[in-house]
Design goal:
alpha+beta, Rieske Iron-sulfur Protein, Naphthalene 1,2-dioxygenase Alpha Subunit, Chain A, domain 1, 2 domains, nine-stranded antiparallel beta sheet, four-stranded antiparallel beta sheet, 5 helices, about 15% helix, globular
């Protein structure tokens, strides 16, 4: 459990979270960019309402506040060369660890430390750049992704998807096992198979996990040569609170597909969804096909998430109705409450 803190924190401008909730969420790790996006040019990102710039400084990935300390211009508007980035206003250059290394107007003068950037830690994993706004010393809890490093598994990092909805709502939808027959009938589900067999979440150190068995397949509709009549599909969900989960799908003949759902909270109302995938079959097929199918599935969910009311995720169990199939979402909401988060997220 992450306790609410009485230590004052500096909230981002126009913060959409309650202060105590922001302080708790800011201690967790989230992806903010695809590693392949970060080349010579600086990349802008937003996490928990904080504007960030991500850039390469040689072999180092730097994540910093997207604000030049000189006159407050976003550094993401500037240029880069793979070693430094330059502010678009006066050309101040910043390199490793966010240090200011060149002031064109006074190239021979000493550079004051006040010109160095406010930086955050960065870790590259699963093809994503992860960061934390309030890191704890020596702690970097990046969610685990099964099979990513295993021999025979293809690593695929899909393009991100932006959703005009709260990360908690999106995460709950990913964990939901009762919506397939109504939301995903154009991609993989069976409209005539809506029954949810009994299942029970099990608590873990990072959240909870669920094994869910059904006869609803996971091959794209129309792929007729893939079906195995009567095969029971096992879907194994693992959550890492607050907003990341993995789904391992057991296909016939020992094949495995793992999807990570990393919902990065841009704000309390906007989510950038990152979805690394690994699999040990069909590794010779075009990666673009995976991108396209994944986008179709998440766009089906996006329509639902963007329409839900209230926009936040009610953590008080009495505020919405529940059925037995909702055990995952009930466990998820309980886990968020146990972190110390308030009943509502949106200020």
């Amino acid at each position: 459990m992450l306790e609410k803190t009485s230590t004052p924190v500096v909230l981002p401008r126009n913060c959409t979270f309650e202060a105590d909730d922001w302080a708790i969420l800011a201690r967790c790790w989230y992806p903010v960019a695809l590693a392949r996006e970060v080349g010579e040019k600086p990349v802008g990102a937003v996490l928990l309402d904080e504007t960030l710039v991500v850039y390469r400084a040689g072999g180092e990935i730097v994540v910093a506040q997207d604000l030049c300390p000189h006159r407050g211009v976003p550094l993401s508007l500037g240029s880069g060369d793979g070693k430094t980035i330059a502010c678009a206003y006066h050309g101040f250059r910043f390199g490793a660890e966010g240090r200011c290394v060149h002031v064109p107007a006074h190239p021979d003068n000493a550079i004051p430390g006040k010109l160095n950037l406010q930086t955050y830690p960065s870790i590259e994993r699963y093809g994503l750049i992860w960061t934390c706004l309030r890191p704890e010393e020596g702690v970097a809890e990046i969610p685990d992704m099964p099979h990513w490093e295993d021999e025979g598994f293809q690593q695929i990092t899909c393009p991100w998807v932006d959703i005009n909805g709260f990360a908690g709502r999106q995460m709950e939808g990913f964990l939901d096992v009762a919506h397939f027959a109504f939301v995903h009938t154009a991609t993989f589900a069976d409209a005539n198979n809506a029954v949810v067999p009994p299942y029970m979440p099990k608590r873990t150190e990072t959240g909870f996990e669920v094994e869910y068995r059904s006869y609803v397949g996971n091959y794209p509709i129309g792929v007729s040569d893939k079906g195995v009549p009567g095969f029971e599909w096992l879907r194994h969900f693992r959550t890492h609170l607050p907003f990341t989960a993995t789904l391992t799908i057991h296909f016939p003949e020992g094949k495995r597909l793992v999807i990570m759902n990393a919902a990065s909270p841009v704000s309390a109302r906007v989510t950038r969804l990152f979805a690394p995938i690994c699999r040990n079959f069909d590794t010779d097929l075009p990666v673009q096909d995976v991108y396209d199918f994944n986008l179709r599935v998440f766009n089906e969910d996006k329509v639902i998430v963007e329409s839900q009311k209230p926009e936040c995720l009610p953590l008080d169990p009495t505020l919405e109705a529940h059925v037995m199939a909702d055990r995952s979402s009930i466990a998820y909401r309980r886990g968020l409450r146990d972190m110390g988060l308030s009943r509502f997220f949106i200020a």
